[in-house]
């Protein structure tokens, strides 16, 4: 629309003035904020921008491919795709504690990103998809107002280490505005209105030790859940259950339970489905999904994902439970 078009040309102008003919790097995560930042900066300076996409092996099904298709193929953005899954899995071996896993994933992420950034010797700027609520939150954290229950991994300190100037074109925007901007810049609606996904990814949705085998099972179960949420429309509102929930995902439980399939007995893993409704993610209600939807998801997961023979639905609200299981 007109207002957004105006906003874009102003933002583009500002980025060009700031950056001049220097080069910029940006860590693309597949999330909304870094994606919109990338699209905006690319609009402003084209090939002076290089994105680095670190795949830690804890992404959702086909997510790496989707990010590459959208940015590299459709938008023509320069993207360096780093497959670091072996490295991450290696460092996570034997580690079961949630905060320890978060620390390792955060640390490795910074390490891999830095190594890539150092190869781009001409870069003078580090771009980040920081949005207004992040600015507020980190200000709060510094004055001790915010209590960090789970350490959210970010790339704080990176620009200093790399000797880069910081470019944050979304700093003044709220989430809704970032989404509108993303759509106006040509990013697919489906991508821009995606549920949030934590930085440590499936690393905190596989309880205890992370294993490649668990991640592969979880990815497939999660994809089925999300597909059915997207495809099931609530007649009362005309919206899909994906849009009616704030966050929904599957969690891998590394316990085995007994089942029966055909003439045989199975002894396989369990997944829990989690779907919540919330306005601020500080408190959340579990979503009252239709039984027919739960039934379909459960039967599809058990039939299609060999290795999982039981599906449960999480009916805990926050507080006292958290949205993630770790
Ligand atoms: P909890 O589980 O604390 O989650 O109720 C609240 C919101 O924060 C997200 N979350 C994270 N995001 N790194 C992130 O980037 C993390 O370590 C992390 N832990 C939780 C969670 O997905 C939910 O949206």
How would you characterize the overall build of this protein?
With 326 residues, the protein is of the alpha/beta class. The chain folds into two domains: 2-192, Rossmann fold, CATH 3.40.50.620; 205-313, GMP Synthetase, Chain A, domain 3 (2-Layer Sandwich), CATH 3.30.300. Helices cover 44% and strands 20% of the residues. It is built from twelve helices and nine strands. The strands form two sheets. It has a five-stranded parallel beta sheet with strand order 3-2-1-4-5, with helices on both faces. A hairpin with a 2-residue loop joins strand 6 and strand 7. Helix 2 crosses helix 8. It is globular. The two termini are 41 Å apart. Xanthosine-5'-monophosphate (XMP) binds next to loops. Its EC number is 6.3.5.2. One of its GO terms (molecular function) is ATP binding. Keywords: ATP-binding, Glutamine amidotransferase, GMP biosynthesis, Ligase, Nucleotide-binding, Purine biosynthesis. It is an enzyme of class 6 (ligase). It catalyses: XMP + L-glutamine + ATP + H2O = GMP + L-glutamate + AMP + diphosphate + 2 H(+).
